[in-house]
Input
Amino acid sequence: MKRITAWLLGSTLITGAAGATAWPVGYGEVILGGTLLTLNQPDEEMEDRNKAMTTETMRAAGGIEWLPGLSTGFSMWLWGDKVVNTESAEQQMDGISTGVDVRLRLPLGNGSGPYVSYGRQCWQVVITGLENRWSENSCSVVKSAGIAFGTGQRSQYPGAAMVLEYSRMDFNEVEAGSLMVGLRMNF
Output
């Protein structure tokens, strides 16, 4: 992982120094997808067993790309049904988080390239339909990897890119993995 990070950072600095575009560049993105949640829930015999459920996910983010491929940003995540009946026997999830991240992307031109990001999200989550209702708020690390596909502009200053991303976050004893697709716009 250290070699990949060093290679991405080195490529970013070399590409940034060679480009004629004025940096920094602001960006905004909207990403939609699904999340698989795994919760370790004790049963009647107090034995641990994993329960899994899926929910829809949305992330809105904005930030600054300081050099081609190196950016920092702020994001807000929304999970699940926004109207959760806390007495329901049906599994439902409602969650929200805000946080910051740093992203390294291999700048292949026109906004394309693989990327990794690392951030911290502070969240509040409620899950119903379990033997014991689960509700907590805290802060966690979020790790993501993805690929951006530029819109076809052949400059270092891309207008838009489609992104495909997998993100991993833990809500204390709940593990969450999200697969999402979205649009990133530079301005």
Observations:
- The two ends are 31 Å apart (CA to CA).
- The first strand starts at residue 25 and ends at 42.
